From TrEMBL:
Forms a heterodimer with TMPRSS7. Interacts with VTN. Binds LRP1B; binding is followed by internalization and degradation. Interacts with PPP1CB. In complex with PLAU/uPA, interacts with PLAUR/uPAR. Interacts with SORL1 and LRP1, either alone or in complex with PLAU; these interactions are abolished in the presence of LRPAP1/RAP. The ternary complex composed of PLAUR-PLAU-PAI1 also interacts with SORL1. Interacts with PLAT/tPA. Also interacts with SORL1, when complexed to PLAT/tPA. The keyword Chloroplast does not apply. SUPFAM superfamilies: Serpins. GO terms for biological process: negative regulation of plasminogen activation; negative regulation of vascular wound healing. Residues 37-384 form the Serpin domain. This is Plasminogen activator inhibitor 1. GO terms for molecular function: serine-type endopeptidase inhibitor activity. GO terms for cellular component: extracellular space. It comes from Hymenochirus boettgeri (Congo dwarf clawed frog). The keyword Signal applies. Residues 356-385 are annotated as: Disordered. Keywords: Signal. It holds the Pfam family Serpin. Belongs to the serpin family.
Length: 385
């Protein structure tokens, strides 16, 4: 298989767990995976003909946190999009166990797992949070809330960026820019995912050399391409329109996680022939039907950087009210009104080399108050009395 054109590259997290997880975990994992695929397709609409990295986990995590504080139509839209609610029996426990199963050994004395996940909630010091929201957040994510002084934007930005950098092994720097914390910022949710894995079947470095890589417009450019002949899980599939495409699996050491690569067989077929039909069920079908076969795999050696604005993709999936100062209802999060999500964003960095893969994602959601709350009481007598 020559991956000398645009292809889908995905590191599987949730799907690996689905096979071995208990029934409740399977329920949550499947729905999380389904949401991630649907959101990926929406994000892709805003990044046509561009290289794209995307991590569904950070968005799923943020929406799960927001569920705990949302009410009314805002809550309904989040639950309808995720297709599960935290009030469902055992869902909160399942989310926590799912996170632990993915990265539970990161800080253990045993052989560390290749995935590290962290979630952080940073609130303005005087923002009153409801007891119910605090309990739900701490029970689900096993994290304490951190207080930050957002009225000092520079200091707050440094604190948040340092948290992301330390939880992504230094790969994601400056997630928040200089203008990311306006004066009315009241709360910021952060999620960090870091992956580091070695191939079971590494590429020989001596085989890496310049080869043509074909862009979606038909042009090509010379890039460093790795090559290896080995036995991989592999299969060929056909789209509903009759287009053939290949899928190959590259396992990482430990065999809990793997990379799936899907690419159209013909150079003239756009990648959208696959992405438009992508579902969690289709990915599961790939896994089931692949067989061991000896193949020559030629793959670009690359480094990818992506920045994604999540507001429009989430809006197209039906999550709209939480972004509106007039309609957002987070009355179960805080007594302060109005609170709404003013920004949702993600940065991705991914490196694929002969020895393996390093990838990190930082996701942030900023909640803002529409009304400025002055600190202290001030009386000005600027006119004659």
């Amino acid at each position: 298989m020559l991956c000398d054109r645009r292809c889908i590259v995905g590191i599987l997290l949730s799907l690996v767990l689905v096979d071995s997880a208990p029934s409740t975990l399977t329920h949550v994992a499947k729905k999380s995976t389904s949401f991630g695929v649907r959101l990926f397709q929406e994000v892709l609409l805003d990044h046509q003909a561009k290289n794209l990295g995307f991590s569904p986990y950070g968005v799923t995590s943020a929406l799960s946190i927001l569920q705990s504080g949302a009410s009314g139509k805002t809550l309904e839209q989040i639950q309808r999009t995720l297709n599960y609610g935290l009030r469902e029996r055992a869902v909160s426990v399942s989310l926590r166990k799912l996170r632990e199963q993915i990265s539970g050994k990161w800080n253990s004395t045993e052989q560390p797992k290749s995935v590290h996940i962290a979630d952080g909630l940073f609130v303005q010091r005087d923002l009153p949070l409801t007891l119910g929201f605090l309990r739900k957040f701490q029970a689900t994510f096993q994290r304490q809330v951190s207080q930050v002084n957002f009225t000092n934007p520079s200091e707050a930005k440094d604190i948040l960026n340092q948290w992301v950098e330390s939880n992504t092994d230094g790969m994601i720097k400056d997630l928040l820019g200089s203008d990311s914390i306006p004066p009315l910022t009241r709360l910021v949710m952060l999620s960090a995912v870091h992956f580091s894995g070695k191939w079971i079947l590494p590429f020989p470095e001596k085989e890496t050399r310049p080869r043509p890589f074909y862009r979606s417009d038909g042009s090509h450019v010379q890039v460093q391409m790795m090559a290896n002949t080995a036995k991989y899980n592999y299969s060929e599939f056909t789209t509903p329109d009759g287009e053939y495409y290949d899928v190959i699996e590259l396992p990482y050491e430990g065999e809990e996680l793997s990379m799936l690569i899907a690419a159209p067989y013909e150079k003239g077929v756009p990648l959208s022939a696959i992405t438009d039909i992508l579902t969690s069920e289709l990915i599961a079908k790939w896994k089931v039907q692949m067989k061991r076969a000896t193949r020559l795999l030629v793959l670009p050696k690359f480094s990818l950087h992506s920045e994604v604005d999540l507001k429009k993709p989430l809006g197209r999936l039906g999550v709209k009210d939480m972004f509106s100062a007039e309609r957002a209802d987070f009355s179960r999060l805080s007594s302060e009104r109005p609170l709404y999500v003013s920004q949702a964003f993600q940065k991705i960095k991914m490196e694929v080399t002969e020895s393996g893969t390093r990838a990190s994602a930082g996701t942030g959601e900023r909640m803002t108050s529409k009304i400025h709350k002055p600190y202290g009481n001030t009386i000005k007598t600027q006119n004659p009395l």
